[in-house]
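User: Can you help me understand a structure? I only have the sequence.
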Amino acid sequence: MVNRQEQRLKGLSVFLPSHNEEGNVERVVRGFLGELPRVADSYEVIVVDDGSRDRTGEIADRLAAEDSHVRVVHHEVNRGYGAAVISGIRAAREPYVLLCDGDGQFDPADVQLLAARIPAFDVVVGRRARRADHLVRRFNGKAWTWLVRRLFDVRVTDIDCGFKLIRRDLLEGLELRAKGAMISTELMARLVARGAKVDEVDVKHLPRLVGEQSGANLRVILRAFKELFALRGELRAESDPDRNSKSAHSCGRSSD
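Assistant: Let's start by predicting it. Here is the structure, written out as tokens:
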């Protein structure tokens, strides 16, 4: 078990993808504002309001007006979890970036557990020790992680855990395309392809107190599988320059 020893970071950006989280956003933001001074010399909390139809954006704007450490990114329409993650990454300004889902199911204090593994590792991923989700959701998560581990050699056991600490320079120029839940797989696969050293740490997973989890329908699941195998093809092509040059040569010959 990892000791909760304090490891100070030079700077930390926390971003919270949030959609219809009016009952959670203030509690989560204030939780991080109370915790981050213990972890980082400089810090910010970024709420990514992904086209919420409730008061999420309004509450986030008020918090930003009250505290200069809080910033808000607004999507005028709901663009999806992946788009919210991409916006959060682009908005981050500090040397380290923490992705934390905005639903209140993670304990801000657990950021110390992840920070304790820096600088030995470039990416530290939370692992939900006792996942507070229904059985079907837990089973789907394990099956998906099993598949991802075999396709991309990403050696983590909870690929979709929404609590990840990442060195920001590794994110620069990273081309992320997934707009939905596939973003977690794409993010980790591309970081591993860049040679990132990855560790995994047990974190608490709390029951959702307010709001509803978004469920994945059959269309979303099928799209995820399509994106998964497309990503595998892209990464294999990027890692095989000979294959790319042959493809380009073949295209050149066909145009003669």
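Now, to help you interpret it: Confidence is low (pLDDT under 50) at residues 247-251. The CA atoms of residues 170 and 204 lie 26 Å apart. Let me know which part you'd like to focus on.
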